[in-house]
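Notes, p. 3: input format for complexes.
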Amino acid sequence: MISSALDILHSVFGYPSFRGQQQAVVEHLAEGGDALVLMPTGGGKSLCYQIPALLRQGTGIVVSPLIALMQDQVDALRAAGVAAAYLNSSLDAQAQREVERQLLAGELNLLYVAPERLLTGRFLGLLEQTEVALFAIDEAHCVSQWGHDFRPEYRELTVLHERFPQVPRIALTATADPRTREEIVERLALTEARQFVSSFDRPNIGYRVMLKHNPRTQLMQFLDGHRGEAGIVYALSRKKVDDTAAWLAEAGIEALPYHAGLDAATRAKNQQRFLREDGVVMVATVAFGMGIDKPDVRFVAHLDLPRSMEGYYQETGRGGRDGLPAEAWMIYGLADVVTMSQMIAQSESADERKRIERQKLESLLAYAEATRCRRELLLGAFGEDYHGPCGGCDNCVEPPKTWDATVPAQKALSAVYRSGQRFGAGHVIDILRGVDNERMGQLDHDKLSTFGIGADMDEKGWRSVFRQLLAAGLLATDAEGYGILRLTVASRDVLLGKQAVRLREDAKPVRSARRRRDS
Ligand code: ADP
Ligand code: ZN
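Output follows (519 residues plus zinc ion):
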């Protein structure tokens, strides 16, 4: 069995050896077992079902939501001499009949189908009249509501197990956080399946996160270290993408914009230039990147917080596909946290969805504010037990200085509490610093016991304290997104003096109070 799997790898695919867990997966499937395969993008998931489909009797049925990619995959397989076909809405009636005929005649090694097609009574009926080698469920995270690609049809795929209990099934995904994994297992009835979990580490990517104070200067300094190299700069809004791209172009950098608001022709043109020319910097919203496979992307910069750790991993993962060093760089500030909270609150999503989004934002904040190895946190978010120092993130290269901020943290939390947990950071900082403005007087906040107890630290210092308290879960913002601060369960121990608080040095009291907002 092993030798024939290897034979196919050599003779059909032309590769000298298996990669990572491929061989183990192939053998397990070929022997009739079920499998769940978690592998990062580019890890080589396709061979995990293609080779067993060739080893076993009958046709391998591949369920994939990516209709646009089916044709490419099938063309590549045919070029290698594999009898492959696909069935989706892009085929006309006659072409569909022909594929069905081939399936019934047992002429196909592999058949790619869209989930909605597979689930039709007609297609399931056809499958009952033919021999099925295996079912491969690609992009299996689509079954999960936790992720961003939820497809209701994926939930119905359990019908495969019910109607074809003897046929081995393999589910594959590059999305690996533990909650998604649990949901895949449960929703696709894969409790008996063996799990093959690859490492998601990208050792050639270096990670760096900085406090945002002057975004343009910071970006320019970063780009100065990458002159003439290809890279992606992500920003949250279309306007910011346009403005940044124009500004960079003016400064002599080969920068192009990309977002969903541009017309299709411009988008296609900019994407082509990024792919074909050397050293183009693509300034983009998250609309850019899906299916982009450019090996020599040397950096990925984030001017705003991404949506989640998952998103951050996917976006930064577009750097360094060629295995050479690449840099993932991000700047963020307190204002970003407030913006993100507002976006979540004001979205049309159901409450459950909003709760998920808030949790995702929180883990991203913890990552941004981390003082320990970033790789450890990033991989930890995917359930991977990695232990730093990695030597390739800012915190490992230069461990951040921390200071004992227990007393300022207590002052901050008290001020939030005493003012009734009804105000945003700006006003609470004014209370702490004893700013005597009209609003203070109207609210009688100048009479609070916390009024002016933080006058020894400037506004910038306090903003940093609040930002880090939020990131550490010692403060939370309101669900409606107004940026109103409230205490959390964890705040209590700090207020009672049971827990010390250490913060990054950037929050240390600065006595020469130079006012500068950290945007
Ligand atoms: P995924 O689906 O996990 O993103 P693919 O299956 O598309 O990854 O494979 C990614 C690339 O790696 C493809 O170009 C594929 O041909 C190549 N590849 C996969 N397995 C091997 C191997 N054992 N040896 C060499 N190249 C491989
Ligand atoms: Zn590290």
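The two ends are 61 Å apart (CA to CA).
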